[in-house]
Write a structure and sequence with these properties.
The chain has 73 residues and is α+β, with helices and mostly antiparallel strands. It is 16% helix and 40% strand. The chain is globular and about 35 Å long.
């Protein structure tokens, strides 16, 4: 078992202002964080990925998760 377990958070921000209003987590990885958000919001979310971030929105809030590194399995 590695001594350093990655910790991934869901950052919740206001769509119009960009202000961070909450952080959810920590989760083991980005996939676990994205799955947990559905339970938090009570609905399935559609995620979009940029190079380093996953993002989804349920107005007026946006949810961001740092993407896992490509070299991680």
């Amino acid at each position: 078992m590695p001594c350093h377990t990655p910790k991934v958070f869901v950052t919740v921000s206001h769509v119009e202002t960009g202000e961070t209003v909450r952080q959810l987590g920590p989760y083991q990885n980005a996939a676990a964080a994205r799955r947990a958000l559905s339970a938090f919001t009570g609905q399935a979310m559609t995620w979009e990925r940029t190079e380093d971030t996953w993002r989804t929105e349920k107005y007026p809030l946006a949810y961001h998760v740092q993407a896992d590194s490509v070299d991680e399995s």
